[in-house]
Known about the structure:
The protein is of the alpha/beta class. It is 43% helix and 16% strand.
Amino acid sequence: MKIIGKVAAILFFIFALSGNVDAAQNLTPVRFIPQWSPQAQFAGYYVAFEKGFYAAHGVDVKILEGGPGKPPAEWLQKGAADFGSMFLTTAIVERSRGVRLVNIGQIVAKSSQVLIAKKSSGIKNIRDMNGKKVGLWGAGLGIGPEALFKKYGLHVIVIPQSWSVNLFLRGGVDVASAMMYNEYHTILQAGVNPDEFVVFHFTGLGFNVPEDGIYCLESTWKKDPGTCRRFAQASLEGWRYAFDHPREALDIVMKYVHRARIATNREHQKWMLEHMRRLIDLPPAGECPRGVSKSDYLAISRELMTDSIIQRIPAYSNLFRNCAAANEK
Length: 329
């Protein structure tokens, strides 16, 4: 009887293992690239992978490492990634240039971008930046500041800014690009007194633009809208879990941070995750990410066109897809 029991246990294990193999073989493989290096800005995607939410939705996701020199639009276009996250302004500009991007889920509902200026540079208002040295990111992340400078008729000296704010801290630039959930806190952690600088919020300068969204190529959507929908919904589950279990989410984020050898700390990532909670407007469980209204989209696009950032406004219907419409072609 003992031998029979052991044989039965072995057979059960073999059948279970073969079932898991079959399930894994049925997953659709996709690659996702965030628009920046590993950090809590992308906690929802890391959590969705580590907790098995993508697999549960039938998607075998490989999360690529983003960062400087790896613009998601370019990676999508050359077939190195299937999905990517990027700012709405970046997507509008790329679509206007002929890159057939589609938004399958707007994750961040409002702007957290700011410009930080040292009071010692004599900067008290936005117009005082005229002629000053300003650090700007590349890969489409400088679109917002460029639009603002044109809006206010400013001519600044653009200095390329990397992931670090060291150039600003050492006096290499008068103004730094920053996100409230990231570089702003980094400057505080460096020991700079908030009384020493001025923060210019894009929201207060007439440029409150939704930021991170999930994008793919139009061809990817047409080929398999169901996978696109499942990827978007699983990503939302990841964000929901991350906000409900912040300690576990931070453990996961730090795993990716350490793997990429990013110079940061848990306290900074905690600050970032807490700020992402304020920026992300999650829909009820099981629903798709909220989109961008047509009126808001046109207002943003007209501003970009007025400031000569784009030459034409891409049609709203071409850029946005409802991820609930799994059978849409």
